Amino acid sequence: MKTSILKSLAAALAISLASYAWAGPGPEDLTKALTEQVLSAVAADAEIKAGDTEKAIRLVEERVLPHFNFEHMTALAVGRDWRAASPEQRAALTEQFRTLLVRTYSNALTQYTNQTIFFKPFRGKPEDEDALVRTEIRQPGAQAIQMDFNLERIGEDWKVYDVVVAGVSLVTNYRATFAQQVRQSGIDGLIESLKAKNAEKATAQS
Fold first, then answer.
1. Which conformational region is residue 177 in: left (phi greater than 0), alpha (psi within -120 to 50 degrees), or beta?
2. Which residues are bridge partners to 165 per DSSP?
3. What CA–CA distances, in Å, run from 117 to 59, 130, 134, 176?
4. Which of 17, 60, 194, 202 is the most buried (most CB within 10 A)?
5. How many domains does the chain have?
6. 147 Cβ neighbours under 8 A, 6+ residues apart
7. In angstroms, rounded to a whole number, what is the distance separating the alpha carbons of residues 74 and 15?
8. Is 140 left (phi over 0), alpha (psi -120 to 50) or beta?
9. Would you say the C-alpha torsion 105, 106, 107, 112 has a positive or negative sign?
10. C-alpha to C-alpha distance for 158 and 167, rounded to whole angstroms
């Protein structure tokens, strides 16, 4: 259970870290600065530490979501079935998958205690269109967790489209389950399944 919570927290921290990883010059310095801001905000907020997931969600929405490409993330998660989805279905899938990820990892932020983040050497180039930032989550008494996150250049901005925790992609980890649901009940069935999961999580976290 402890390992599972730590992995979820690592994913949540990855989302927070990624939001400013390429915000102008000196991406590593800016990433470290944002990390300190986010973790300080969580550590100083008694309500989040007490398990207030809704407040953690607001923190994620304000500081993180504008820097994610959720449509790309959803397309990766749905896989080849994405091509068969209508524009309306794609929009619905993206909305529900976004809600699922936000609720899952906002909840993980409430588990934060005294983890630290180690940044591995960054090898990106200014002309790159795709970037990989490698970090490690460390906590006393627990094994360190390798964490990589992928960003893509969109215009003048960089957006996160995947996070890999302990070798497992947070996005493509859903692909097999989503594919099975599409085979059983079609794309609309997958949308309804995501809605049900989100409603269940909202009830459990209220």
1. alpha
2. 147, 168
3. 19, 22, 10, 31
4. 17
5. 1
6. 10, 11, 13, 14, 134, 135, 136, 137, 163, 164, 165, 166
7. 15
8. beta
9. positive
10. 23
Beta strands in 24-129 (DSSP E): 116-119
Name which of 162, 189, 170 is nearest 178 in CA terms.
Answer: 189
pLDDT tens digits, one per residue of 45-89: 788 777 777 887 787 777 767 778 899 999 999 999 999 999 999
For residue 169, the cross-strand partners are 164
**CA–CA distance, 190 with 205 (Å, rounded to integer):** 22
Q: Which range of residues forms the domain containing residue 201?
A: 2-205
CA dist 91 and 164 (Å) reads 24
Tokens linked to 146: 């390798």
How sure is the predictor about 177, in pLDDT bands with cuts at 50, 70 and 90?
Answer: very high
- Residue 195 near residue 96, CB atoms below 8 Å: yes
The sign of the CA dihedral 20, 25, 30, 31 is positive
- CATH code of the domain in which 182 resides: 3.10.450.710
Structure token digits, residue 4: 């599972």
Q: Tens digits of per-residue pLDDT, 28-44?
A: 554 565 666 667 777 77
